[in-house]
Write a structure and sequence with these properties.
- By secondary structure, the protein is of the alpha+beta class.
- It is built from five helices and five strands; from the N terminus they run ββααβββααα.
- The chain has one domain (11-191).
- A three-stranded antiparallel β-sheet has the order 3-4-5.
- α3 crosses α4.
């Protein structure tokens, strides 16, 4: 980054062409990485079932057993039900748009690298937690109220609302971190702004 002093107009900051090219390269790399993740969605879904079994199994009667992209839950009267984490239910569908948004911010704005990376990491972690809670809710409602009522309300109604909430929250987190101005920058900008003399 270089600075060009202009007479009577303070200092104008310009981004070098090399840095702009690097930002574009990283943005395209992020999109390529998202595409690779998409092609490996089966492996990601298997990890999601294992993660769900790890933390939710002690909390659910009969526990949760992972099996490939399925997680197994026992419902009364002792029937074992397999829930499949399909492509439409994986956390990838929440993370991929966040990656695309972060890539666009990096390519077309002057937001710092660290802010873009922080926003993507934090939002991805948040939507992962939210999606895990959604899967746990589906398992709990199905075990509690059965397939006819519990699964329908847990998956189609409450689960869908949770997914939409997670999607919107992830976008807000990325944008909030990207464009938030800290107090130090605000004070520095205020100090550098010349004050007009008041006439009496």
């Amino acid at each position: 980054m270089s600075t060009l002093p202009l007479p009577g107009q303070g200092t104008v900051v310009t981004v070098s062409r090399l840095q702009r090219v690097l930002r574009w390269i990283v943005a395209l790399t992020m999109l390529a990485f998202a595409t690779v993740l998409l092609s490996q969605n089966v492996a990601v879904r298997e990890l999601e079932t294992k993660l769900l079994a790890f933390w939710f199994s002690p909390l659910l009667i009969g526990g949760v057993k992972p099996n490939d992209t399925h997680f197994l839950v026992t419902i009364p009267p002792g029937q074992l039900i397999a829930f499949n984490i399909t492509f439409e239910c994986t956390v990838l569908l929440l993370i991929l748009p966040l990656t695309a948004l972060s890539a666009l911010l990096l390519a077309f704005t002057k937001t710092s690298w660290t802010r873009v990376a922080s926003g993507l990491l934090v939002s991805s972690a948040v939507v992962l937690v939210i999606n895990q809670l959604r899967l746990a809710l589906i398992a709990f409602t199905t075990q509690t109220w059965g397939l006819d009522f519990g699964y329908q309300i847990g998956h189609r109604f409450i689960g869908s609302l949770i997914a939409l909430f997670g999607f919107a929250l992830g976008f807000l987190i990325v944008l909030r971190i990207a464009f938030k101005t800290n107090k130090f920058q605000q004070r520095k900008a205020a100090a550098s702004t010349p004050r007009k003399a008041h006439r009496r």
